[in-house]
Amino acid sequence: MAAGLTESLVYNAKVTAISLENDQYSVVSSQGTFTAPKVIVAMSPAIMKHIQFSPGLPAARQAVHNGYTMGAVGKFFAAYNTPFWRSQWKSGQVIGDGNPIDVTFESYGQGQHFLMGFISHDNMRRLDNASREQIIEECTRNLVTYFGSQARTAMVDKGLMLWDKEPFSEGGPTGITAPGVLTSVRDALVAPVGGIHWAGTETATYWTGYMDGAVTSGYRAAAEVSAALVGARR
């Protein structure tokens, strides 16, 4: 999709401010300032508070930002040369005890088999300040509980992602709202503010929280901008 946009794409550009002046928006980033008549902001409302908007946003839109928070979640994966659990008549999927992994999934890629586990809510908060080594050891012990000793002895690689500590996500897998937020200001979740349009999986009407929702929200926001620009030329 990006093949034809090589010269137009800017990576590693942390946006800190979006301002409007003379019908043009200025997007201030760590890689410079960019101007355009329309802007699409495609990120979770929970972390939009890090961007300064000028003029300020309407109260309903601010309530959207303030009403969202990110879930506490991390992901651990263990790689194996063979799916040993299948010989035990196990699928690789477990709804577990949350000590600390509460659910696992099986996957395959690049010649290896994987057991992936999510660490969620209170368990993730408990481990937020633990060392990487401690978290990996607790997750490995938990896989042994679920799948037996081979979960440790046959492991050829491992990985850990703590979304809580990622500065551009601050948690995951998606933003969640406090009670009453969506019923009171749901229209502001997608309603454009001047030339600023909103996208991101939280704004999707189907498969919210998933990649599918992120993509369809992007199509919706792009269609809004296209229609607005065409209308402005008439």
UniProtKB/TrEMBL annotation:
It is an enzyme of class 1 (oxidoreductase). Its cofactor is FAD. It is found in: Mitochondrion outer membrane. GO terms for molecular function: hydrolase activity; monoamine oxidase activity; primary methylamine oxidase activity. InterPro entries: Amino_oxidase, FAD/NAD-bd_sf, Flavin_amine_oxidase, Flavin_MAO. Substrate binds at F118. The keyword Mitochondrion applies. Transmembrane segments: none annotated. It is a single-pass type IV membrane protein. FAD binds at V15, E202. Keywords: FAD, Flavoprotein, Hydrolase, Membrane, Mitochondrion, Mitochondrion outer membrane, Oxidoreductase. One of its GO terms (cellular component) is mitochondrial outer membrane. Residues 5-225 form the Amine oxidase domain. It catalyses: a secondary aliphatic amine + O2 + H2O = a primary amine + an aldehyde + H2O2. Its EC number is 1.4.3.-. Pfam families: Amino_oxidase (PF01593). Belongs to the flavin monoamine oxidase family. This is Amine oxidase. It comes from Platysternon megacephalum (big-headed turtle).
